[in-house]
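Our working data are protein records whose layout never changes between entries. An example says more than a description, so a record of this kind follows.
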Amino acid sequence: MNQQHVNGSRARRFWLRTVLVSAMALPMLIFYAIGTLGPLLISDLAVAPHGLGWLVMSAFGLAALLSLWAGPLVNALGSRRALALLFWATLAGYGLLLCLPGVAGVILALAVCGVAQALANPVTNLLVLECVEPASKPAVVGLKQSGVQLSALFSGLLLPSLAAALGWRGALATLLVPALALALWGPRVAPTATPCKALSLRIARPNSRLALLLSVQLCVGLVLSAFVTFLGVFAVRQGVSSVQTGAMVAGFGAMGMVARTLLTPLGARLREEAWLLCGLLVLASLALGVTAQATPEAHWPLWFGALGMGLTAVACNAIAMSMLLRDPAFGSPAPASGLLSAGFFLGFALGPLLFGLLEQAQGGFASAWLSLIAVLLLGAGFSLRLGWVRRRAARGCGMPARVD
């Protein structure tokens, strides 16, 4: 009987982690699909390369707006109903993408996916708080945040070959089956009866610490979205095939999974995670500088940039979420997660649009890459400021710099 109980507990833990990873992966996969299949989308939808920025903005612009209320909504619905809403919205988005023609149809489908993206961090963070023992929280947060990079890995490895056989819409339609299965059975991992709070539409104002962390996330989101969206377009101009481009995105995703899984628990053991954020952003700026050196004769800078960005900037979101869950000074977890996601998604919405407009205005990628490096260094500056604020507050209270 005891062995059955242990096996049942292991199965529940495994299913919980599977659902957490899937809840982060499925809504975000559409973004990496745009980066991987960008040349096909440009051809099929008859849009200019900088038009990819508008497609990304249709998803993440709405996600950023809805994130302002996503935390209170999750608290009001409870984790089980909020998780169901996330998966059904994802299923609806992919279904519309298959059915609706033209650019307008794609934009509407991406906007529906934006609903799920807005819910992803608040509901998964609430599930971690409700279902995961304190000692395992940093590792589980890193694991579930790595789901985003799992979607990049899938996009890079499988979507190019699937799109060659089925078309890009058919390739994405293969996701309808797992999305339906998760919509039907995924919410069962959540507690059956959780206390629900009254829904308030008042937007909570971030305190000074959360505002600094939000600013870091805004910079990270802007750079990551622009990088992934236009890496394929830039690589094709250097003579790289679509299969190789997909492999680069897959490498980016694989390195991101490693970084988030390993660096999130590491950050939790440091006296101040903000210093780690600063270091990662500086290293990411170096990776971007190398990427910009790619030429038709030298493709290795593209690989260096993809792998380097995956190992550095990608980890920042997971580390930030772990900081938020462990330190009550950032605010109540679900609303604070929603605000942090709003900043991250706002960066995701603006990054490809601004990058594409700058690349078009300057007639090349050089100035656009340089602008992303500047944004990363700005984010590093916000990280330094956050670390200084937390250390000063800790000294004033006579407490350690971090709160577990």
The chain is about 80% helix and 0% strand. The domain at 2-189+206-397 is CATH 1.20.1250.20 (Growth Hormone; Chain: A;). The chain has one domain: 2-189+206-397.
